[in-house]
Specification:
The structure holds 2 protein chains of 2 kinds. Helices cover 29% and strands 17% of the residues of chain A. Chain A is α+β, with helices and mostly antiparallel strands. Classes of the chains: A alpha+beta, B alpha+beta.
């Protein structure tokens, strides 16, 4: 809160460059939500357990409540708002919508980021690989069944209904 | 040449249809209550009791008020109207006065320009407490000083129980409770406190309207009952308080009681600025009620060929410091104590007590979860004693329409207990996976603790049932309003809370079916444009919203037929009337105390490392009585999610307390199932339309949670040969250490 502890950082978020002064103590999730108004990433637990705030930072999947905004200086960040293009959903977003892979939806943006990270590395993951990849994202509504299905469908695999 | 895109026909009743909010939820655009924003808003913060029980000697806010950015620091003296509120009984202080009765009870609220300023100011509020001995043992609560000497729950037609600290007690006597069988099995069962752990912590925004009233944007389960609790405490008329549903990050019963609503409104009216309050996870653990922990003593008597003769059950529920919905949980636990089985003789005593432990209220399954865990353990025990197959034993005793329950209520609707048992039992159980295998697929999983040497496989089975809708004479209704516009489109208003369960689709699919058009919209849920929808709880919202929307649509069409112009009609739907239990015998005083029932059967395959006490649920199959599925895809989603919550209670979820203080208020210490804990679920929808319900629907949210804890424990017992009488099950109990 005191000006002496503020720092100026430059980040690229979803292809847009931002230069902002931030309090040194501010977490990346609060910077994204409150300073950049990117409220798609959510705060669920504050302790790095639930994954609702998951983002990709220079291509690395991480929980944005576990990082200070100043630590993100000079990086390129991707959030749920950066998925899809020109108003079209990407394959994962489409599959989540089609396969009822969400209910309250609070975990969904983080879940999508973890699944994106998986598919970038492993375009046709097995069920077990999917489960491992999203184990850091808690969903309280779905029991994960349809989330696993949606990731399979998004990777072009046949899914039983 | 271009071909016009084929017009997408949107879902009608009975069709799997995409969630109406699916796209905004996958793009991140969907606005949750925590995203609410108003220009010039302040941030609220709640100062809470660090004691489970204490007298408040003094409160000094002067230092906090002088902190930078602070606009208000309010105590009970600043509550202009009623000082207490409550979901069913007005027993809970808006801000504590005289004494605090639980850890985390709100005492002071602060509003400041910045959330950090509010937090720092909250730290400077000086409250002098005189700690009192907390009541923490529910078995001794009825012998201790009353926490509520004015006995707020008495005199409501309940049994007059003179013991101190009784929230409610109910005794159900049927036939001859001393009737003997050829065999008898008994057991004592315990359940810890479960948290709803919805992923979006409590939050909301209160905006003063400049004329003395206030608008509150909040994640809740029942907008109108929030309004009716908020307004009297602010000294306002109900219409001066407008509750608007903000995006809800899960609920599961935990948003039935108020959280920030009165506090936010109080601060907003006091400062004449919008005020936002957002709890963090730690505050969320003390900021809402939990599932009642319970201790259940049960005895089952049966004939040699496995026919139940008599069931005797005693249930003790810890309600914590305030009543919330405990009186209804008490009667639910009693109503379902004997399971979905026919038995001529029964004695059920269910008691809920006040203590200084965390307050308990509604959570998915609402009393039936606790009872199911006990009655299904007893049925397995009975099967073992009689050497009868456990599924066969359940079939021999399965309730059927026309049978009477221990409360004397005859089942007049559908209840296909035998059918769900058979359909579930038919599901093929997967083959045991060979060793060696990747340790992630062994008990202990990512912990890499074993190569599988001590792993044993078990298969379990359970059946459970629960009521649909509010009971015991409660005036349970739902309102819907339909406008048919000149351009042929329609607008539907219904204040049913979309909490993720999919009621928005139920409303839309019903309206499309009735009006036979896709050209309609669902207006935002608010108290300002339509009457009450009742609560998104008790597995009632599908039935009630479908009923109300159907009636309003039909009335609107008839009205247009008559007048030819635009129409705007509102209709109130009620399910068949229920009546109270007799306070002395627990018998129904009319045709029914519960309007309808739904049942589910579940089969579970689990593996247990019997040396390390580690468990892994491998597969779950279930058949559920759903009446008729409005949106089959969404119904399966409810079954899978409800099952996961029961799995959490079975294996890992417990709010732990010491001296009434919560010791694990975080997701680091309170564990919720992940993808590696939760197996695939195979679900069968058993459609047997309910005659009293619109389209034959039933609620579907709770039966899977009721039955899954019991079914998982059944599998663990099969694997270990141990009794495993407490959930969440501990490693020590699994390996047999006492």
């Amino acid at each position: 809160m005191t000006p002496e502890t503020a720092r100026t950082i430059a980040v690229d978020v979803n292809g847009v460059s931002y230069e902002r002064e931030v309090e040194a103590r501010k977490l990346l999730i609060h910077f994204l939500r409150d300073d950049l108004d990117l409220t798609g990433s959510h705060v669920g637990c504050d302790t790095g357990n639930c994954g609702a705030c998951s983002v990709l930072l220079d291509g690395v999947l991480l929980k944005s409540c576990m990082l200070l905004a100043v630590q993100a200086d000079g990086t390129s960040i991707r959030t749920v708002e950066g998925l899809g293009s020109d108003g079209e959903l990407d394959a994962l977003q489409q599959a989540f919508a089609d396969h009822h892979a969400l209910q309250c939806g609070y975990c969904t943006p983080g879940m999508l980021m973890s699944a994106s990270w998986l598919l970038e590395r492993n375009p046709r993951p097995s069920e077990e690989e999917i489960r491992r990849a999203i184990q850091g994202n808690i969903c309280r509504c779905t029991g994960y069944v349809n989330i696993v299905r949606a990731v399979q469908a998004a990777s072009g695999q046949e899914v039983s209904e | 040449m271009t071909v016009p895109a084929e017009k997408l026909r949107l879902g009608r009743v009975g069709e799997s249809a995409r969630r109406t909010d699916a796209v905004p939820k996958v793009t991140g655009e969907f606005a949750y209550s925590s995203d609410a924003y108003a220009a010039g808003m302040l941030w609220g913060r709640t100062v809470r009791s660090p004691h489970a029980h204490a007298r408040i000697r003094s409160i000094d806010v002067s230092e906090a008020l002088a902190m930078p950015g602070v606009h208000a620091v309010l105590t009970h003296e600043d509550v202009p109207g009623e000082k207490r509120y409550g979901l069913e009984f007005r027993d809970q202080p808006v801000l504590a006065f005289d004494r605090v009765r639980y850890f985390g009870e709100p005492v002071v609220v602060v509003a400041a320009e910045h959330p950090e300023q509010a937090r720092r100011a909250a730290d400077r509020v000086r409250i002098e407490y005189e700690p009192l001995e907390p009541i923490v043992d529910p078995e001794r609560a009825t012998e201790q000083e009353p926490l509520h000497p004015d006995r707020p729950t008495m005199g409501h037609g309940y049994r007059d129980d003179p013991r101190p600290n009784v929230v409610r007690s109910l005794v159900i006597r049927r036939g001859d409770p001393d009737a003997r069988g050829d065999v008898s099995v008994s057991g004592v069962y315990e359940l810890g406190i479960q948290d709803q752990a919805f992923l979006g912590p409590e939050s909301g925004l209160a905006v003063p309207d400049g004329e003395g009233g206030v608008d509150v944007y909040v994640a809740t389960q029942w907008l109108h009952v929030d309004r009716d609790q908020v307004a009297p405490c602010l000294g306002l008329r109900p219409e001066q308080v407008r509750i608007h549903l903000a995006g809800v990050g899960g609920a599961f019963g935990g948003r039935e009681d108020l959280s920030m609503q009165i506090h936010g409104a109080l601060l907003a009216l006091h400062t004449n600025r919008p005020v936002k309050i957002v709890y963090d996870r730690q505050e969320s653990f003390v900021g809402h009620i939990h599932r009642h922990p319970a201790k259940i003593w049960a005895e089952h008597r049966a004939t040699r060929d496995g026919k139940l003769v008599c069931i005797r059950v005693r249930i003790l529920l810890d309600g914590g410091a305030y009543a919330s919905s405990s009186t209804a949980v008490t009667s639910n636990a009693a109503s379902f104590a004997c399971g979905p089985y026919a038995v001529e003789n029964a004695l059920v005593e269910s008691t809920c007590v006040y203590t200084n432990n965390p307050p308990c209220g509604a959570m998915r399954g609402f009393g039936a979860v606790q009872s199911c865990f006990a009655h299904e353990a007893q049925m397995d025990k009975l099967a073992a004693a009689l050497r009868i197959d456990p599924i066969e034993l359940r079939l021999r005793n399965a309730l059927a329409p026309g049978d009477s329950l221990p409360t004397g209520q005859r089942i007049t609707g559908t209840l296909p207990v035998a059918d769900v048992i058979r359909r579930c039992a038919e599901l093929p159980v997967p083959e045991a996976e060979e060793l060696p295998r990747d340790p992630i697929r062994l008990p202990g999983g990512a912990g890499n603790t074993t190569r599988g040497e001590g792993v044993r496989r078990g298969v379990g089975f359970a059946v459970g049932f629960k009521n649909i809708g509010y009971s015991e004479g409660f005036d349970d209704y739902c309102t819907a309003r339909v406008r048919l516009l000149a351009d042929g489109s329609a607008e539907v208003h219904c204040a049913a809370a979309e909490v993720g369960q999919g009621v928005a689709n139920v409303i839309l699919q019903t309206a499309r079916t009735e009006l036979d058009t896709d050209d309609l919209v669902l207006a935002p849920a608010t108290t300002s444009s339509v009457g009450s929808a009742g609560s998104a709880s008790a597995s009632r919202m599908t039935w009630m919203a479908a009923g109300a929307v159907r009636e309003a649509c039909r009335a609107a069409l008839a009205e247009r037929e008559r007048t030819g112009g635009e129409v705007d009609v509102e209709r109130v739907y009620r399910h068949p009337r229920t009546t109270p239990f007799d306070p002395e015998t627990g018998q129904v005083t009319g045709e029914r105390a519960h309007v309808a029932y739904a049942c589910a059967a579940m089969r579970v395959v689990a593996e247990v490392d019997v040396e390390l006490g580690l468990t892994r649920v491998v597969w779950i199959g279930t058949a559920q009585d759903v009446g008729r599925a409005v949106n089959p895809q969404a119904v399966e989603g409810q079954i899978e999610g409800g099952t996961a919550q029961g799995l959490g209670l079975a294996l890992m979820e417990e709010v732990q307390t010491r001296g009434g203080l919560i010791t694990n208020a975080s997701f680091t210490d309170y564990l919720v199932p992940t993808t590696l804990d939760m197996p695939p679920v195979e679900s069968v929808l058993v459609e047997d339309p309910e005659p009293d319900a619109p389209y034959g629907v039933k609620g579907v949210g709770e039966p899977p949670t009721v039955v899954s804890t019991a079914a998982i424990l059944s599998a663990l017992r099969d694997a270990t040969g141990r009794e495993l009488t407490r959930v969440p099950v501990s490693f020590d109990e699994v390996v047999g250490l006492d």
